[in-house]
Specification:
The complex is a heterodimer of chains A (about 110) and B (about 120).
Chain A (H helix, E strand, L loop, with lengths): L3 E3 L4 E4 L4 E7 L7 E6 L6 E6 L4 E3 L2 E6 L4 E6 L8 E8 L9 E3 L3 E6 L1
Parallel strand pairs in A: 2-11
Antiparallel strand pairs in A: 1-3, 3-8, 4-5, 4-9, 6-7, 7-8, 9-10, 9-11
Chain B lengths: L4 E3 L2 E4 L5 E6 L6 E7 L5 E8 L14 E5 L5 E5 L8 E8 L11 E2 L3 E5 L1
Parallel strand pairs in B: 2-10
Antiparallel strand pairs in B: 1-3, 3-7, 4-5, 4-8, 6-7, 8-9, 8-10
Classes of the chains: A mainly beta (about 110), B mainly beta (about 120).
Chain lengths: ~110, ~120
């Protein structure tokens, strides 16, 4: 089983739609979680951290379910500029690899007019 | 510098040659990471340096791959006897601490695109 798994998509949605991505992780001791965004042929950039209580940043909402070991990202009122690959990122558990970040394969989102 | 700098941005080499890729992290960032991204694939962890601790080399795919870091500055990733399957974008990233803290952001360089003919 991969350490971090995502549905690769692609998700094709019209402008204004709401879309949700899920991500599962295998190590129950993982402690920090993030969503990154990667535009075509560009480097990944942090979209948002994911906190235990859930958090929101404008149109983006991130949720963490530790019991089920999954993370979600919800995008409301999709814009054309949201088209990108969304990467789920999980840190390693405490120990010698503390701080090592593992990336999921990414979920491709295309927002069309 | 203001960002993570990687060089060369593009490298074309012949199978069997050695290549060296360089990463200059953001000043003051103690953690440095190398990832590999093949065309259309996700990021594959290679190696992680954190301060003066022993690096986590668990992602290096073979003994042809090695990396060094001088103190908390420049890192070089060396690939010996390159193979065609080594063709990928090699991404370097740095953060102020081990990025487990939510306050620390992983900043990536633009990558070094390696093509092995």
């Amino acid at each position: 089983r991969k350490e971090v798994e995502q549905d690769p998509g692609p998700f094709n949605v019209p402008e204004g739609a709401t879309v949700a991505f899920n991500c599962t992780y295998s190590n129950s001791a993982s402690q920090s979680f993030f969503w990154y965004r990667q535009d075509c042929r560009k480097e990944p950039k942090l979209l948002m951290s994911v906190y235990s209580s859930g958090n929101e940043d404008g149109r983006f909402t991130a949720q963490l379910n530790r019991a089920s070991q999954y993370i979600s990202l919800l995008i409301r009122d999709s814009k054309l500029s949201d088209s990108a690959t969304y990467l789920c990122v999980v840190n390693a558990a405490a120990g010698t690899s503390y701080g090592k970040l593992t990336f999921g394969q990414g979920t491709i989102l295309t927002v069309h007019p | 510098g203001a960002g993570v700098s990687q060089s060369p941005s593009n490298k074309v080499t012949e199978k069997g040659k050695d290549v060296e890729l360089r990463c200059d992290p953001i000043s003051g960032h103690t953690a440095l990471y190398w990832y590999r991204q093949r065309l259309g694939q996700g990021l594959e962890f290679l190696i992680y340096f954190q301060g003066n601790s022993a690096p986590d080399k668990s992602g290096l795919p073979s003994d042809r791959f090695s990396a060094e870091r001088t103190g908390e500055s420049v890192s070089t990733l060396t690939i010996q006897r390159t193979q065609q399957e080594d063709s990928a974008v090699y991404l370097c990233a740095s953060s102020r601490q081990g990025a487990a803290s939510g306050a620390n952001v992983l900043t990536f360089g633009a990558g070094s695109r390696l093509t092995v003919l």
